[in-house]
Design a protein that fits this description.
Radius of gyration: 19 Å
Structural class: alpha/beta
Order of helices and strands: EHEHEHEHEHEEEEHEHHEE
Number of helices: 8
Number of domains: 2
Mean pLDDT: 87
CATH topology of the largest domain: Rossmann fold
CATH superfamily of the largest domain: Response regulator
Strand content: 15-25%
Number of strands: 12
Low-confidence stretches: none
Amino acid sequence: MPAERSQILVVDDDEAIREVVQLVLERGGMLVRTAEDGRGALKVLFGGTVDAVLLDVDMPGLDGWQTLERIREVTDVPVCMLTSEDAELAKVRALRGGADDYVVKPFGAQELLARVEALVRRGRPAAAPAQDLYEDARVRVDRQQRLVSIDGDELALTRREYGLMAALTAEAGRVLPSDVLVDRVWDGMATADQVKLYVSRLRRKLADHDADKTVETVRGIGYRYRPPAA
């Protein structure tokens, strides 16, 4: 049976760039969908699953930064920002905003293909341990089903948010340094700022159930899950 082909979303308002990138990726054996702006990209993402996104920064209307923010509200699909600005601050903004990679135009075909292949590998979920369950007075983490619930209500978590919750509850009460979480949740391909960003998003969802204080920040070290009282 042939391997399933990776599906990539290419978002750029420049038709010529879209066509070139599509050709490179299709020659690399990938399926490509395209959008000419941020709103079109969100329609594609909300309408189905893609394995990675190549997202242009400079677009009219909903630009790349705004589109990335919207994407990160609902999914942690790997995203690579495309831009003509080769500046350190722009790269930092991309990574802190939740992007996984950053490519400066013009780029070589082989470099682009290699980066997209790495994005796809990064986005593949790790296998969950079988028959692995965490449960306390309020929180239940079913690692076999990859589900988290509070007082019986299931939380709508992205893959990274679930990964954080699973890692923290696996060693409830212990402080896990940011670099440990990077290794366990991102396979080593993230920064401490990205961990901080996703912890913040996880807490917002826990706060809907008055459980945000279960995930604590230990300043200068990392994060800890503290089981709630009954």
